[in-house]
Amino acid sequence: MKRTLLYALAFFVTHFAMSQVSLNQVDDFEDGSTENWVEAASSAAQAENISSDGPAGVNDNYLRDYTTQAPGGPGSRMIIRNLTQWSGNFTAAGVESVTMDVRALNVDVTVRVSITGPGGKFSSSTGIVVTAGSGWTQVSIPIAGSDMVSVSDGNDGGSPGTDINATLSGVTEFRILSNPSPSWIGEVTDAEMHLDNITASGSLSVVDFENQQLGFSISPNPGKNKLNIRFLDTHNDLTVEVFDVLGKRIYKSALTRLESSINVSNWKSGVYLVKVSDNESTKTKRFIKQ
Prior knowledge:
By secondary structure, the protein is mainly β. It has 2 domains: about 180 residues, Galactose-binding domain-like (Jelly Rolls), CATH 2.60.120.260; about 80 residues, Immunoglobulin-like (Sandwich). Helices cover about 10% and strands about 40% of the residues. The chain is built from 3 helices and 20 strands. Strand 19 and strand 20 form a beta hairpin. It is globular. About 35% of the residues are buried. The N terminus is likely disordered.
């Protein structure tokens, strides 16, 4: 009996450790499964793995989530959840944002992240609109303590948020949903949303990257028509990505020269984050478009 209990305990500890969130983990759905992303058991609109037409095109798998056409009934809300690898201590893991590729098929969706744990339920203050028919869009949603707001129970019990730090240290359920306002539940809608490359990322802030080795400068800053990027040294496999203040990626390109220029004349005025990566590091700078 004692040995059996020890085996059971070892299995539980191993399973629990394997299910904990970790920095840079990615759900890309290439194994053909839904990777533990589920709808409520009562929903008639269960998520499914689609084997082709992801962001990379042919043979790139993605996750399909959709709602029923029964207003207010099971499966009528745009929401999908994970209780396995997206549970655990986000603070200790250093996970402060979630990046994913999203496609809205027939109706615009406002993508948010919601979590629950010992401190109650919280939802991201940032909601990113993905326009129907616009194709795949990469979005990044910050989920640090200052980025989350307390939300009410919804319709499945539990407690509203009272302590975001406690919840981030012990997330028991992680949700991706569509709602114009922070919420624990998705909006009632007749919609279809596709997801891929759901990634546990670090902070999008500029300060976190200032001490890394990848050196580059941007000019003019502020700028009106062009954004010039100049590297201090040669690097391999350089990529530049630009995000707006809501975390929506608006530009991505490979860089092959020490100096490159991006046409920004059609960008809206405001603040953008310019993120440059190579095989070893990432660095981000703030750019102001006049």
